[in-house]
Structure formats: structure tokens, C-alpha cells
Amino acid sequence: MLATSIKDLAGLSYFRRRAMLNLSTRVVTRLGRPDAFYHAPSADFKRLSGSYTPARFSQFASDLRSAQLTVKGNEIPNNRLGPCAEDEFPPISAKTYKGLLEAGKAAFRNGEIGAVILAGGTASRLTKNKIFWEIEGGKTLLQLKLYATIGRAREGGIDIPLYIMTSPATRHDVVKMANELGYEEGIDFMVSDQSMLPVLTPGGEMVGFNERILFAPTGHGAVFPTMQNTGVLDWMAKRGVKYVVQSNIDNPLVALDSQDSNPFLAYVGYHANAEREITAQVSRKEPLFMGGIPLWYKPEEGKRRLAIIETNQIEPKYLEQFNSLLPYFNPLTLIYNLGFLRKFDAARLPVVVIEREDKDPNSGEVILKYVKLETMSGSITMAEPANFLPDTIPGVYREGMFTQLKGLDQLEAWKARLVSRFPDFFKA
């Protein structure tokens, strides 16, 4: 049963504290998936919302009520987008590889590389959070990701400052696992939660449940203001970092070490020698792979350029065409200049409207239709020109550096490759 008026629950103090948002609240008495949300008093808005102010969020709600903010509004006009061919993404060549690898190794030895792991999933679409996924011999995906990102470097005497963006659903376990591996918060890594906003009804109301407001993550685009606001970038800069490598928790094949068998430092070398602030890695796209896709994009001002466009930003009638034609997508692996990240205004990222349904797990009944607001980290290429590089190098490395681990059922298919890629880790 839904209570659509605040006076129905006038005695609950958490509704009094919601006044800073100046929004009405719809109360639900049950949820199909309570774990799909974060539950908190509305007074926690400031703590959870990151760079979103009450005024800005209230404006989003107002725009939703007046239909100025819609899912359809996510879509970029098709005359500003265009498909691109495989030959528009020239890979690192075997001829230039050695020099770029040496440049990357120099940055590695000089302590100029920092790393970011996106680990903020709240398991809203999964039965088990990815950080707990066991690969082999009790070793989890998070443990492997930490080893690939900073553990191998430490074995070679190099410290890589690491930032892990978590959520309230993952932070405790991330810190615990990192500590168990011998990494110390504040010295080896920093961690903080991605921002969250209250979910909204299609009519622009907040949603109340059990004397709390329902919150949801604002997408991995939150990594930029979160790093700025929590001192992560200043911490990395003091450690001498110039280049920041971002990758997702489900992609342990992005490894940071100076072994000749690992080509990733050649990408860092390429980025260090390039004139742009961002380098985006693209991986071979299979039909079921999910992620933003590189398209020719014409900003409202300026020349057209390649940019990562999310699928919900493409008109449906063109999305199928683009998906069938395009050879690549972005797996959230990007390299940034740290100085650029320190000054980047995250308000330049497009905010997209995501519609969801909470259903009874037994009957399938729709209990709640709700909206959440998100930004995506790949959308930074819509705001700033970027380099694009395939994750294979002809004549040098043809396997690619991406694991599409979106479901537990996919682990078995990737297990042998991960074990062969990191034998020392799995033998320990």
C-alpha cells in the first residue's frame, strides 16, 4: 500500500528532517528487493550525495515532475552521432611498441602511476557481489584485482597509490580484504564511497520505507568529484603521480608491473607521449558485451570527435544498427593526466535517467516503479577529446586485456586464462 501524502506519517521524525530537500515522500510498506537500495534518513543526504546539492537534486525532481527530465531526453540526436570503422582505431604497432613500453616502464619506476578500481556495485542486479566471487583455491576476484593492480608492482619494489571507489554495500569487505593482504589504508590505498541520491518516483517524489529514504548509487561518473572532494588526487600528487589508470573490479587483466610479458605499460607510455588528457582503451565487442561504445560525436559547440556514448544515450532504432556494425566498446579502462582530473568539472557530465522496477521475487508483481540518476565515467570523453586504443597489439599481444565478468556463470569460462595469467598468485 502506498501513502502519497506526507501527512499520513506526520509523526515520523525522519520526514521532518527531509525539509532541506523540500520534496514530498511516497511511502511503501514492502519491497521485493530491499537489498537493491541503501536505506538512510534523509538527513544523510549531504553525507551521501557528494557534489550534488539539495538545490540541484530538487531541481532534478521538479524537472521529472514536469516531464522536462525523461528517459527519452537521455538520447543524443542521431544527427550528432555517427558509426566508426575498425580502421579508425589504429592500435599500437609492433614497430613503436618497444619505445612506448620503455616510456611506460620509466613512469612506473619513477612512481608516476596511480590507480583507481571501481568497486561500488550494490548487487542490485546480481545474486552475489563481485568482490566475493571465488575464482580458484579460495581466491576472490577482489583479491586478484588488488594483486594485479598493486601487488605485482610491490613485488618489484614499486608502490602504486591506489584509490578504490566503493559503496556502503562493499566498503567494509573491501577494506577487510585489502588489510588481510597486507595493504594499509591511508598508506597503500584510499577508499571512499561513491555518491548516492534518493531514488524518485516517476512523479518526482522520494521513496520512504521503514522510516528511511531509499538511496541508489549515482553511477561510476561519481569517481571524478569523489576523488576531488576526498583528497585522493592531492594524496596521489604528493606521492609523485602524474598518470591515473582506471579499471573496473571485473577486469583483472589490466595489470601494473614491468614484466615484458605485460604490455599494459605501453599504453601508459603512449598516453604519456600524447597531447591529450585522456586515453580510452577499447576492447573487441561481442554481441552480449555491455558498455559504452565509441562513436563519432558532434558537441553542441566544437568539432566532431570520437567519444564513448552509453547505449541509453542512443535512439533505440539506431542502437541495433550501431551494435551490429561497431567492432569495439569501452570496458571502463581509461588513463588520465592527474592534473586534468584535479580541475575537471564533473557537472559537465550528462546526467541520465534510469527507470527501474522493484518486483516481488515470487509473484513478479511490480511493487514500485522508480527512477535513479546516474553519470558514467566514459562520458568524460564527451567533455574532453581523448585518445582511443584497442587492447590488442598486432605481432605482440593478441589476447586482449578484458574479462567480461558480468555474471557468476561466466567465471568458469575465464578461470583458466586468469590462472595462467597470474600463476604465482594462485599458487601462493
Give keywords.
single chain; 428 residues; alpha+beta; Spore Coat Polysaccharide Biosynthesis Protein SpsA, Chain A; eight-stranded mixed β-sheet; 14 helices; uridylyltransferase activity; transferase; UDP-N-acetylglucosamine pyrophosphorylase; nucleotidyltransferase
- Do you know the CATH topology? Spore Coat Polysaccharide Biosynthesis Protein SpsA, Chain A
Supply the number of structural domains.
1
Shape verdict? globular
* Annotated CATH homologous superfamily: Spore Coat Polysaccharide Biosynthesis Protein SpsA, Chain A
Task: Tell me the structural class.
Answer: alpha+beta
Beta-strand content bin:
15-25%
Keywords: Nucleotidyltransferase, Transferase
Protein name: UDP-N-acetylglucosamine pyrophosphorylase
Pfam family, one: UDPGP
InterPro entries: Nucleotide-diphossugar_trans, UDP-sugar_pyrophosphorylase, UDPGP_fam
Can you describe this structure?
The chain is α+β, with helices and mostly antiparallel strands and 428 residues long. The protein has a single domain (2-427), classed as Spore Coat Polysaccharide Biosynthesis Protein SpsA, Chain A. It has helices at 13-16, 45-48, 54-65, 94-109, 141-155, 171-180, 223-229, 232-238, 264-273, 316-325, 338-343, 380-383, 411-421, 423-427, and strands at residues 2-3, 25-28, 38-40, 81-82, 113-118, 134-136, 139-140, 162-166, 189-193, 196-198, 206-209, 212-217, 243-248, 278-284, 293-297, 305-309, 328-329, 334-337, 352-359, 366-374, 386-390. Strands 5, 8, 9, 13, 14, 17, 18 and 21 form an 8-stranded mixed sheet that branches. Strands 1, 2, 3, 10, 11 and 12 form a 6-stranded mixed sheet that branches. 44% of the residues are buried. The model is unreliable at 1-19 and 123-127 (pLDDT under 50). Belongs to the UDPGP type 1 family. Keywords: Nucleotidyltransferase, Transferase.
